[in-house]
Task: structure prediction
Amino acid sequence: MKLLKKTNRTYFIISASAFVVAGVLIYFVLSFIFEDQLNEKLKSDMDSIVRAIERDNTVPYYYPFIEVRKVYGQTIRPANTVDTLLFDESERESIPFRQISSVKIIKGQMYLIVARDTLLEKSDLLLIIGVVIGLVFALLNISLYFINRKLSINIWKPFYSTLDHLKGFSPDDHEFKLSTVNEIDEFTELNKTLENLTSKVISDYQSLKRFTEDASHEIQTPLAVIQSRLEALIQYPDIKKDQAELIKSAYTSVQRISKLIQTLLLLTKIANYQFPEKSRVNLSELLEEKIKLFEDHIKSKSLILKKEIEPEVYLETNFFLTESMIMNLFGNAVKHSLKEGIINIRLRTGYLGISNTGSPLSVPSDKLFERFYKIDKSTVSQGLGLAIVKEICRLNRWEISYEYKDDQHTFKVKF
Amino acid sequence: MKILIIEDEKDLVEIMNNYLGSEGFLCESASSYFEAEDSLSVFKYDIIILDLTLPGGDGLDLIKLIKERNKEAGLLIVSAKNSLDDKIKGLDMGADDYISKPFHLAELNSRIKSLARRRHFDGTNELIFNEIKINVESNEISVNGEIIDLTKTEYDILLYFMVNRNKLITRESIAEHVWGDSISYADNFDFVYSHIKNLRKKIRQKNGGNYIHNLYGIGYKFSD
Result:
């Protein structure tokens, strides 16, 4: 929810409940005051009537407000107050009255004295209070809305500009500057804190990047020396067969280490988000191109390749990583397929499935994606291919899954 | 043909020097940014091999310098960084090729010769070994004057042999040269053998000699 909406809503809810409470209070206070005044007035009316009778001996009559009758043989009764309804001829409706009545003996004559006054109708009172409160409430909220809007536009301006800046942040930037001159101290502080944070992120990212590159350089250069020395060594014409065997074994090992380092560094780089470049990748074309690379592999194992590749499937992603994922998935399928097995490739928008024929896994399938996990310990594979695929999928928020059905191992990627 | 090797690892310079020297190249070397600057300001080279990670400066800056001072030179970048960034940047800035460490000497030699050919330094686009002739422009191969029909793979292998003649080339080097990264997914090198077998057969059919010698199971030597 937007800040403005949230504040407005909060103001609205709080003021609404305050106004309801206020309305109820006003209602009770007003009715109490009205009734109290009415009772006072009726009492003083009664006193005036009695005084008028005593003084003039006249009987005042002013229906329905004052009613005095001479009565006989009744018991004397002190003043008592009741509410009653009287029918008003002119308005043709019943109107509530409060009346005070008393039987008194004045100068030897017995009188029934009644004084009345109209009671304010409760519904009228409620209506009036409701309308007034409602008006004030509306006025308050409308003005709050405009004040808030103005405040949020002016006061929150630096905040929104910071937010915009942050959205464009990439750790690959060499510098990240935010305005630190603000009218509002909190925002200045926020920007300063963010700047510290981002400069830390940038420097961490850069040093990690440098580390992977330096590590690569420092390891690969001596390996290049060893490999080239071995290649130079085998050029000697009088080399013996057993010496050649020794060189061959050392040579193979150097290559293994070199590939391993490359793969490990690749994993590190993916984990460090060092592949920020994105482009529109034609997955269909890329897949066909990679399949072509494996023609000889497929022929030499007599594999049957079945492909259903929808043309023009595009992904907005990093080209190098996508290539790497396809090489790994397809390469694994070719490598692990049984001879004369079937390889299925399905590509359509949002889905890639690659499967190969093989006997069931002897291990739980969730172990497949673990680093250095090899099903067959004797193979020279690194056991890192699927770990890379998993990392690439995680980075791109693609979903990778594995399934075994009808002798087919299938890896599915949902984009 | 004159080559400048810009590389700070002395051992590697020596190895490249020896190997390329035996192929008839004249090699000089520079082991730091400043040495490279010096050499480039005084001499002209036909081909420059540049390691991007150098003491004293950024290898990418050197590319600019090379393009200013020695425009005609073929430029091969060698890097262990294996970072795609550098590769793309380097090629964008005008480098002709990129090879990552560690490399096979035969591969390095093949890349340099290809650079040299593209620049017509030797004035011919033909590679000749006895009765075998490759026209690298038209991709035509003839044995004893008769054209033979090779597959793309066989052609690549033969060309690789021809530029690295009289040298023992490892199977790994051939496999990587022809099949690239996909080779690491092969169970064995069987299809390398089978392509070489076919290549031998096709050359023999035109009464060509058997020049491809298998040595100790390590690799092959293309020689008399």
In short: Chain A has three domains: 3-144, 164-276, 279-414.
